Amino acid sequence: MGTWNWGPFDNDIAFDAVRQLADGTFRMDQFRFDCEQSRLDTEQLQVLVALAAVVNGYVPAQFESARAYEFGFKDRRWIEARVREAVAPTGSELYDMWKDAGELEQWLAATNKVVR
């Protein structure tokens, strides 16, 4: 995984997902289907954090057009519910990854700014 900072778009998988939102190739239905097949893994959780940030109006400057992606009502509620798993201290591979790296507090601070 390429990670260069703690922000919601500061890793390869989340950055790619937002780029796909911007260019119209992101498939929310496929992402939801994939997430329902098993426990959420680190990459899926990173995408969820990025999607929650976009839903809440945050996008990387170079992908401003991602704001135009139309999340349906059910998709928004689904993202809100599932992103809580990403920041939960129990059962989240992403939370554990940042904790093991010794950068949990920095990641939580950056994530909580954009995820409600």
Automatic annotation (TrEMBL):
Pfam families: DUF4259
Recorded superkingdom: Bacteria
Protein name (database record): DUF4259 domain-containing protein
Source organism (scientific name): Corynebacterium qintianiae
